[in-house]
Specification:
By secondary structure, this protein is mainly alpha-helical. Helix content is 74%, strand content 0%. The chain is built from twelve helices and no strands. It is globular, with a radius of gyration of 27 Å.
Length: 304
């Protein structure tokens, strides 16, 4: 009986100590999380809600204002400049996303193979991601405007500055964007490729599944989750393209390469259209959210 009582008291103390430790851990986690939630609300949620509020006004960024309802949103759909910027941004995002994922996956497959200096090459391909897009843009702006015309002086399309060509100025922007975006996408694909057991390929080779057939039947289905991550992130980032366009063309020639974010910046902060461009920003947010949900809806089932 005495031994049973001692055992019961010990178990009670252990349970009490465990409960206290659990409460202490939970309290610690809350103190760690709440400051970041507050900072996120201050620098993201509150400004976003303020922007949505002002999108229903005629606020120019200064002076007095009053409510105008949905007139800003209605006017957006009749604005040719806005429609052109959305068409360009969507076209640019689709082209850049396709090229980024095709090139990144091909490079990731090569870097995942048993080649010499594999880690060195992985580091080299990751370098563009740590560089500032604005700096990269200005470097390439000099390259396309000064170096390319001299190097390819015999080519009619390239003997002049391609950045001033209304029909082809988007190509350098895509090249610069894909060049940097591939760096992060390669890392994601490498992480996915390394989760595939080698035994699967060995078993498949016995059935004659090698080369492209093995890639189509084994590799691609097993890394579909990583494809989803890359595609969603690429669309989201490319729909908000700004730095590379400012550095290379500043939206020109004319409005040929003007993205939605560049238009929002120019109109909202320097053009006295704060409320109008706040409505534009709200529309862009809804489009990006819708596209992300669509991608997750139709790409995720392929993971199974």
């Amino acid at each position: 009986m005495i031994g049973d009582k001692r055992m019961t008291m010990t178990q009670t103390r252990v349970a009490t100590g465990t409960h206290r430790n659990r409460r202490f851990a939970e309290t610690t986690y809350y103190w760690m999380v709440w400051p970041f939630i507050i900072l996120f609300a201050i620098f993201h949620t509150i400004p976003m809600l303020a922007g949505i509020f002002f999108s229903f006004t005629n606020y120019a960024g200064y002076g007095k204002w009053h409510m105008v309802g949905f007139s800003n949103y209605v006017n957006l759909f009749g604005d040719d400049r806005v429609l052109h910027s959305y068409l360009f941004t969507i076209f640019f995002s689709l082209v850049a996303t396709i090229l980024t994922n095709v090139i990144s996956l091909a490079i990731a497959l090569a870097l995942n193979a048993r080649i010499k200096a594999r880690n060195l090459f992985r580091g080299i391909f990751f370098i563009p991601y740590v560089l500032s897009m604005l700096i990269i843009g200005y470097v390439f702006q000099f390259f396309f405007s000064k170096s390319v015309p001299k190097i390819f002086s015999a080519v009619p399309l390239l003997r002049d500055n391609v950045l001033t060509n209304e029909h082809w100025a988007w190509v350098p922007i895509v090249i610069v964007t894909v060049w940097q975006a591939c760096a992060f996408a390669i890392i994601i694909y490498l992480a996915g490729l390394q989760t595939i057991p080698v035994d699967i390929y060995e078993a498949a080779s016995l059935d004659g599944a090698t080369g492209f057939k093995a890639f189509r039947s084994i590799t691609l289905p097993l890394i579909m989750g990583y494809v989803t991550i890359n595609v969603v992130l690429n669309i989201k980032n490319f729909m908000q393209a700004f730095d590379q366009i400012v550095a290379l063309t500043d939206g020109g020639p004319g409005m040929a390469t003007e993205s939605v974010t560049l238009q929002i910046y120019q109109g909202g902060f320097t053009g006295g259209e704060f409320a109008y461009q706040s409505a534009d920003a709200a529309i862009l947010f809804l489009i990006i959210t819708f596209l992300s949900l669509i991608q997750l809806r139709y790409l995720n089932p392929k993971e199974d």
